[in-house]
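dumping this here so i dont lose it
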């Protein structure tokens, strides 16, 4: 194929991608050399926590051509996921409900994007028979956000997520590595300026510097990636967030422009949209697996699910019903979950005792103010 042929193919790739439901596509080369010292420093600081896979592949994350020898270009795509009537503020402000990051309310995005990237590769192969391609969706050691930024899909915000002027940050990313010398797109201008809203809004102070996240303090890491106990000092800061966290996105001014996704697969499931914590805590493992079928939530397993909800119940207003549920679940839980249940029980009992003391003081005050014949 000649250079004009590749120009035409790149144009058609973007049309095909739109037909497949992607909201934007860009093309870039594989050079991420400037990211290597940043990645090395992040790993040296231990900011990846227990995510050993982040360090296992070394600098391969910054070298896409090592993943697929012969790769010349990366086709980077994004797909909006914000569901209609996301009810973010309403759920976050109700401590008796569980907040689930809005990206996880629908079908597992890995499957959705990967299938469509494969279809995109099939279309390209019809035009270029010598195509060698491989799709990735958060499934291999690839620095997808720097690649997307190089491809012109947005810029890296101070919370380390990709930001887009038309869609904020509520979107998924995927990549298709190809061996074709397609023309590349140009990066866009950074738009954060002096804004530090995401840094100050993080409930646990996980954004330790602009563009640097200490995963060990991030609620998304704590509720999804961490397998063992959640550090006790961070539990009160988690509120009712039981799977992921969106706070750094919610506060970002650019997300005022975010549009709701038109993709049916990302529509919020009724059982996860604004769920009652006690109802979720009552799920057996079999029921958990049934209710999260086809959902990214299933990957954390029932054990971590109970751990996360126990923390949220410990942060909820004091209630005899919550104490009863915690005591009942404790009998069947393993040692790790029991630790979080015990923490939640201590918080609940202390809160209930405080309520009782306030009630007693109120009764005494009223009693003192009443005439003797009315007591």
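and the seq i came up w/
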């Amino acid at each position: 194929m000649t250079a004009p042929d590749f120009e035409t193919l790149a144009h058609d790739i973007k049309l095909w991608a739109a037909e497949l439901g992607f909201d934007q596509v860009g093309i870039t080369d594989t050079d991420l050399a400037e990211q290597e010292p940043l990645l090395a420093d992040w790993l040296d600081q231990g900011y990846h926590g227990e995510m050993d896979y982040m360090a296992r592949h070394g600098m391969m994350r910054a070298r896409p051509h090592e993943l697929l020898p012969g790769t010349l270009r990366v086709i980077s795509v994004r797909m909006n996921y914000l569901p209609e009537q996301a009810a973010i503020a309403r759920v976050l402000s109700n401590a008796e409900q569980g907040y689930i990051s809005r990206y996880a309310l629908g079908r597992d995005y890995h499957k959705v994007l990967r299938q469509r990237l494969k279809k995109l590769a099939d279309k390209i192969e019809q035009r270029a028979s010598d195509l060698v391609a491989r799709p990735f969706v958060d499934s291999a050691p690839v620095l997808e956000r720097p690649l997307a930024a190089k491809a012109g899909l947005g810029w890296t915000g101070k919370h380390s997520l990709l930001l887009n002027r038309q869609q904020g940050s509520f979107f998924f990313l995927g990549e298709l590595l190809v061996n074709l010398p397609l023309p590349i797109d140009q990066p866009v201008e950074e738009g954060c300026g002096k804004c530090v809203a995401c840094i100050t809004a993080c409930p646990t102070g996980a954004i330790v510097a602009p563009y640097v996240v200490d995963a060990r303090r991030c609620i998304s890491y704590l509720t999804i990636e961490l397998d063992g106990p959640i550090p006790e000092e961070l539990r009160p800061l988690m509120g009712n967030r039981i799977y992921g966290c969106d706070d750094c996105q919610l506060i970002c001014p650019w997300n005022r422009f975010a549009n709701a996704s038109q993709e049916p697969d990302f529509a919020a499931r009724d059982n996860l949209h604004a769920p009652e914590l006690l109802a979720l805590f009552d799920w057996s493992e079999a029921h958990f697996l049934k209710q999260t079928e086809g959902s990214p939530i299933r990957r954390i397993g029932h054990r971590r699910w109970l751990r996360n909800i126990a923390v949220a119940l410990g942060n909820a207003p004091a209630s005899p019903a919550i104490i009863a549920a915690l005591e009942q679940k404790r009998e069947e839980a393993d040692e790790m979950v029991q630790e979080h249940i015990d923490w939640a029980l201590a918080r609940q009992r202390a809160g209930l005792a405080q309520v009782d003391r306030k009630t007693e003081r109120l009764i005494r005050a009223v009693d003192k103010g009443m005439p003797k014949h009315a007591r």
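The chain has a mean pLDDT of 92.
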